[in-house]
Every structure is written in C-alpha cells, then in structure tokens.
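Write out this protein's structure.
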Amino acid sequence: MNNGVKNNVKDKISSFFKMVFLILMGIFALVPLLQVLINAFRTDRENKTMPLGLPKEWVFNNFTETWEIGGYATAYFNSLLTAFIVIIIVLTVVGLGAYAISKLEFKLRGFFTAYFFVAISLPGFLYIVPDYFVMNKLGLVDTRWSLIIVYTAMQIPFNMLLLRTFLAGIPRELEEAAKIDGCNELNSLLKITLPIAKPMFLTIAILVFVNVWNEFLWSNTFITTESLKLVATRFVKFTGEYGSNMARIYTASVITIAPVIILYLFFSRKFIEGMTSGSVKG
C-alpha cells in the first residue's frame, strides 16, 4: 500500500515538472513571436527607442504599405504556385517510390535505399554551382521551372525515407488479402496503402510547403526578375533598401511567417499524428 502511494506521488511530481517544462518551452517559443507581431504595429521611432512591451500608439497602416512596397501579392502567388506544384510532384514520386522500396522485392532495392540516405547527408550548397550551370544550359535560369525542379529534387530523398519507414509498418497481409480479392499491385496501393497512409502524406505535404516557403538561397540565386521572386526573397528588400526602418522589417517578418504559423495552427494535430504513426495495429 505504501509503495503504491509513493509511486502515485512520484508520478504526480514527475507530471508536474513535465508540465512546468512544457509551459516554459512554450513561453520561450511564443514570446519572441508575439513581440515581433506587436512591433509590427509600432512606429519606426518607437521600435528604436522602446522595442519591448506594448506600443503607445497602434499603427495599422504598416501592413498595407509594407505589402505594397514588397510586392507581396505577386510573391505570395509565386510561392503558393511553386509550393503546390512541388507538393503534387513530390507526393506522387515519393508515394510510388516508397511503396516500391518498402513492399516490393527487386535487385536494386538496397541500392536505392542507400542512395537516398547519402542524398540527405549532402548539404545543398555543395551542388548549387553545377546546378546553376545546368539550368543555364537548359535556358531555365530565371524561370519558375528552375526552382520547381530543384525543390522537387531536394525534397524527395528525406520524404522518401520518411514514408518508407511508415509503409514498412503496414502489415503485408493487408495487401496480400487485397490481391486474393483480385487487386493488382497498383490497386492494392490505391485502395489499401494510401487510405492508411493519409496522415503521413499530409505531414509530407506540410513539410514540403514549409521548406519551399522558407527557402532563400536557391530562389535568390536562380530568380532575378522581380515578378518571379518568392516571399522569402522579398524580405531582403527591407533589410537593404529599407534597412533603417525597423517597423518595415518587423512587418515584413510577420507577413513572411504568417502562412507557416497559420498552417501549423490548423494542421498541428494531423502533423503530429503523421510523425508519430510508425505502425498499424490490426
């Protein structure tokens, strides 16, 4: 009886400290974001003299002016279009590839798995120069397709291995039962595997969107035409030409990160579900 009480007390103390730790981590993550949002409603002078706390005077036209100066309407369209195309291609390639690597038996199965492991271990900036020359030879520099091709290639290896790990946890007996009912390999993928793997596909879509939205190096290198620039590269305008105006910088920061935060707020549960689902229980 005493041991049960002691264990119960230990569990409560452990849960208390875990909760305190999580609350502190939440505060540590949220306070800087909230301060950036608040500073976006200050005047430039007040941001330089009193950057912390609530503003004395709330300024709402910072957003409309920054939106117009940065050309964010066009940048949003370019980023959303690029991300949408990349997500569709990545989900298609990764879905078929991961299914093949995890479920089918063929000679190069181990080679492809090792290849993707090597691919994710190489930093992207190592091949940015040769990629630029290849794109230039193909006449794709300063076009949307240059970024679509590069982003797709960059997103496939990690997400291929991520989905492969998930699909490996799906019992093979489910696909075999479908084949007994007359399904071929493709129908088994579409009718059995895909419905089970929906959370992971949504997780991959979110990861790809965030990576494409936040990517700066490649988009700043491959795209020079103003009308084709993405959201991440628009921020440079406010750290350079308008670098002395802190209100513009804070507002541009909010405009840039807002879609990512909104996406997380709406799909955080699905994202966590996809990342933590490593197996399927029968």
